[in-house]
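I am still getting used to backbone structure tokens and would like to learn alongside you. Would you supply a protein for us yourself, any chain you care to pick? Start from the sequence, derive the backbone structure tokens from it, and show both lines together. Go ahead whenever you are ready, and we will take it from there.
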Amino acid sequence: MEITFYCPNVEWTKELDANLAEEIGKFFLVTAEYQGPGVYNKEMDECRGLDIALELNPDEAPIILCSILDEDHFIKLGHIQKFQAVIARKRVGFLRLPFSADELLEKYKSLLNDEKEEDILAIELNRISTYQQKMGLIQHQVKYRLDDPNQVAWSIAEVRKLDVAGTDEEIIELIKNFERNPNNSAFTGKYFPGVFCDIENTLITNYEVNQKMLKILHEYSDKKPITLWTGGDIKSTQMILLQNNITWKLVSKDDFAGAEVEIAYDDMDEEEFSKIYAIKVRQFHVV
């Protein structure tokens, strides 16, 4: 079996290679804590392996992301959008370390004929976050040095890496006028497949999880993307979810005005929901 390792140079990778040598197939194995060839230090919480995994093509071979961390730690470290964008794609899976060669082989085989829908929203959320973060850094770097030709050339090159088209002059104007925009400016008019579930009085009531609703979401999750959303405060809601070991992506309903989603579960009726949030839903379920 051909395994491309993006992992620290430690004994367990050699053991995996040896144990799977007689198998047929090819996949990428990426450790979230990996930082590059020959680099492995105490700054594991940077999770640079996530960037490596995002650059790999799952159509070429399945990608298996692994980590000593579980999903709630990616949330705590501020890497959850990037983590979710990695595993949002088809033929990409996640394993928690440590695992055996048999467990790795089983995961690989399950990804060969992966039937899950790609999580378009998770990918888009990470793209927006990355774009806004990098544009903000570029603007900060050159804001008062636009009379320096070297800085101007550097800034234009960095913006082009973000797949921004336009002349040099247009890119400079973009840098000058860049402002962080709310997500709804990017979501208006777009359609997102998957299941969108309300939190308050739908998934959780008086700090108690609705086990029936949770079961429905788990049944959907084998094939469909799951999104939790709220009209309330994101940070406090995220804490409640973490306390209940619920780690599906969480977004604000307010960001989706003018967007359309496939399936929604809510405690309010569809007419009231549409009036308040201006979101179209193809299949609406009242809980």
Remarks:
- The mean pLDDT is 89.
